[in-house]
Design brief:
Layout lengths: L1 H7 L7 E5 L4 H13 L3 E5 L6 H4 L10 E4 L2 E4 L1 H10 L13 H27 L4 H8 L5 H21 L4 H22 L13 H10 L20 H12 L1 H13 L13 E2 L8
Parallel strand pairs: 1-2, 2-5
Antiparallel strand pairs: 1-3, 3-4
Helix pairs in contact: 2-4, 2-9, 5-8, 5-9, 9-11
Bound molecules: glutathione (GSH).
Length: about 280
Amino acid sequence: MYITLASEFHYLRQPMRLITIPVSHYCEKARWGLIHAGVDYVEDAHLQLFHYLVARRYNTRGMVPILVTDTGAITDSTEILRFLDQRLPESAKLYPKSQIQEVEALEEDFDERFGIETRRWVYFNLRTLPARQILKLAGQGTPLWERAIAPPFFSPLFRFLLHSLDVSRENVDRGFPVISDTFDWVKTRLSDGRPFLCGDRFTAADLTFASLAAPVLWPPEYGIKFPPLEEVPPSARDAIGQFRAHPAGEFALRLFREHRSPATDTQPSGTGTLAQKAAPSP
Ligand SMILES: N[C@@H](CCC(=O)N[C@@H](CS)C(=O)NCC(=O)O)C(=O)O
């Protein structure tokens, strides 16, 4: 099966390049898609705001993830998953023909509501960590020069980031029910014993839910390492513990453990390498 998948991408001379803000859960979604497809890729990771230097070459808003291939650049995590899916055999597709409408509708809803609120939640809950710890988290795999010059600019840059994401206690409180309702909805959905959101097979709906739930779960298999829970404020630690113990949290953690791997056992790792090796924070 690996030969089939690999040969589909053989015309591409260079490994694909995934431009990311490594901590981003939308970037995790694209990363997981590449791993699932068994594609060799390189991750080109950047600190928030520094990423504009690279991303704006490909889209004017400078949004990531961006997948650069020999045939063009694809922006948006959903478009990246769809691109990769075209070349997968039907048995490995994340958008199986028979369920495509349901999968796409769930993915869209997770992307547009749930993912926005889990991101806001984690930024709000990490905002009191020391700058050094936030840079250590966000800087994994990013160029040394970005990590070297970031510290003096950290406070204004972080404030700008919180402002641009509308991170405030009021908005986090308003958004929290979107997270808890989605968790409860997933729990109900799985209560008939089905192993995945759309039935018997792993789809883009599952991958998207798990990736976008990661900011409230901190799965060990995520593309970068989250800080040890002992180092985060008690309120965030308790909330993460509760999300992990929720049946939807357990489901997402299981997906990370069991499905963040190539679609078939016979493929080599297919995991990407960070373009810049992670080094200790300056
Ligand atoms: N719907 C988009 C969302 C991507 C997104 O929100 N990316 C954020 C990182 S989490 C970003 O690029 N932020 C930089 C900015 O807005 O300037 C997708 O699924 O790719």
